[in-house]
Amino acid sequence: MERGKMAEAESLETAAEHERILREIESTDTACIGPTLRSVYDGEEHGRFMEKLETRIRNHDREIEKMCNFHYQGFVDSITELLKVRGEAQKLKNQVTDTNRKLQHEGKELVIAMEELKQCRLQQRNISATVDKLMLCLPVLEMYSKLRDQMKTKRHYPALKTLEHLEHTYLPQVSHYRFCKVMVDNIPKLREEIKDVSMSDLKDFLESIRKHSDKIGETAMKQAQQQRNLDNIVLQQPRIGSKRKSKKDAYTIFDTEIESTSPKSEQDSGILDVEDEEDDEEVPGAQDLVDFSPVYRCLHIYSVLGARETFENYYRKQRRKQARLVLQPPSNMHETLDGYRKYFNQIVGFFVVEDHILHTTQGLVNRAYIDELWEMALSKTIAALRTHSSYCSDPNLVLDLKNLIVLFADTLQVYGFPVNQLFDMLLEIRDQYSETLLKKWAGIFRNILDSDNYSPIPVISEEMYKKVVGQFPFQDTELEKQPFPKKFPFSEFVPKVYNQIKEFIYACLKFSEDLHLSSTEVDDMIRKSTNLLLTRTLSNSLQNVIKRKNIGLTELVQIIINTTHLEKSCKYLEEFITNITNVLPETVHTTKLYGTTTFKDARHAAEEEIYTNLNQKIDQFLQLADYDWMTGDLGNKASDYLVDLIAFLRSTFAVFTHLPGKVAQTACMSACKHLATSLMQLLLEAEVRQLTLGALQQFNLDVRECEQFARSGPVPGFQEDTLQLAFIDLRQLLDLFIQWDWSTYLADYGQPNCKYLRVNPVTALTLLEKMKDTSRKNNMFAQFRKNERDKQKLIDTVAKQLRGLISSHHS
């Protein structure tokens, strides 16, 4: 029972599923029916499904049949009505055919009459057309006759206009007539003839302006110079009006009547004669010198002929060639200013012409072309100036060249050309100008220093005193109170050098004029150049004088005094620069003058030279020393050479009274130390192998003479016994040997307060060895005497102990 119920439930489910699938098949797109059918075959009841499907198909067929039966009667009625219309249409066709036949028969006579009228109208039209063509041919013939006449009289531009009208207006109307063929064949020949003539005029014009560009540029630069002079007259007020002074008016001069029939104007070469105008007060405009009508005519002719681009290319090509020729400087341009002037005149003349062409023609040249030419010209000009200006060694020529370049730049700037690179290059030339100035002033300083007598300037009157004070800023109330005659502490080269430094500053200032620099830039330039003058040129000149072989101590002392006063004058040079540039020294980034350092270095070099010179003099005196190291006699006075040396030192240090105290003290101490060191070397030198106590006593007298000199205070300012310390090493060594105080030396050695602290055991041993050898040689045959044996033993014992001290010190 239950099994029957389950089978019945399954049958109901299957039937519902099959119903769902059938609905899905009816409503689903054919392309998507695959998965639905697959679900049928995946099941086990596909047979029953097929039965249901067949049943459903039969139901749909019955519905279709019912629908067709419902609409069939309307279809039959429509066919019946269509058959009736076909009969009526055939009747209408027969009626139209009959009507057409009747109309053709009735209109035959009318067609014949219309054909006759047509022939009459055609004849009338042919006659009228013939008259019209004859009327067209007569103006063509007249125009061609006029063209021939214009060609014969060389009125080429009007002839070209006539030719244009003939070709484009008249000949197209009658071009199918044979007599026009002759005219058409001649038109290209006439055009070529006009082109050749106008091109010949253009070539003459180009050649002429190439030859006269120098004159054109010279006139333009004169105009610019006049404008600058006018600006200076009105106290450098801004220029009134446009930068292009009267350019518009100048251009109107060249607006010639292109259609002029004068043969003379047709063949004008392009350059006007202005030789008679040079005497006039007003310089003619640069473009007033040139007649541009050949260019305008040729441009118009080529434009009319449709070859404007060819003409433009030719003109630009030729002008580029001329530009390269103009920009090629002569090889000797650097020798004279006229060489530079002619070079600049040619460049200015070239660009004045191009600028005028730019503003008076439409497209013959354009701004890009002008800028390209100017860039090329600028680079080549700057390169040429760099090369040739480097050969200039005369600062005056460099200064004149700078003024000429400024005028050149100002002239071209008036015509709208950028000239900043020229002013940048002038800053490079400024450095070269500074170098030439430095070379010139090196010669000036050398002459001043070579011709100076290195003696204080004597003055015998108030007028001479004021003259010196006017040349050099010097104030000394004590010197002012002294009666005449009196002397300045410095020599003549001080005011001369001071004034030459000021002249150098003026020369630097001249170059900075018209460079459009600010006061700060001018101040910085002057200060840097002046620093080079001080630290390099003047410093080298002073060093060369100081290092001369034949210079004496007096000259060196005077140089120290002179440089001291020049060092004090540096603040006045600072004030001088401030006054001419109006830039305060406190301004940020203001360069300071290094004059103080320069004069200090020179003074220190002179001081070192004094020390070296003194030492050389001492060495020369010491070369005269002639000690008898084997003598047994005891002397009672110092050696002659040493007495002379001390006298020389006293007289020398007496001259040092005008030197700064430390310089004199250092020189004196240096001399005493060098003397003490030289005497020690003389005593210990290897050539002196033996010496006696008597020789040592004589050497001791010389050292006492030196100590006496040191105690006498040859230079004020030393504390007590300070100068004597230079000879302390010699004194302790000599006292040790003369007093034979070896027990004290050996006992106290190494203690800070020992009596012979300055005696080195190596030095003592060296000297002892010299005395030991002497003792042995003199007592060869007396060595058996007890005293001599004891003395020899003592020397050997002391030498052994000294060696022990040396070895212990090294260990």
Give the helix proportion (percent range): over 70%
| H/I helix tally | 28
Radius of gyration equals: 62 Å
Structural class: mainly alpha
Nearest-integer average pLDDT: 79
Percentage of residues in DSSP E strands: under 5%
Distance between the termini: 134 Å
Q: Identify the overall geometry.
A: elongated
Strand order of the largest sheet: 1-2
Strand count: 2
Order of helices and strands: HHHHHHHHHHHHHHEHHEHHHHHHHHHHHH
Describe the largest sheet: 2 strands, antiparallel
Low-confidence segments, given as residue ranges, are: 238-281, 779-784
GO biological process, one term: vesicle tethering involved in exocytosis
Coiled coil: 82-109
Function: Component of the exocyst complex involved in the docking of exocytic vesicles with fusion sites on the plasma membrane.
InterPro entries: EXOC6/Sec15 (IPR007225), EXOC6/Sec15_C (IPR046361), EXOC6/Sec15_C_dom1 (IPR042045), EXOC6_Sec15_N (IPR048359), EXOC6PINT-1/Sec15/Tip20_C_dom2 (IPR042044)
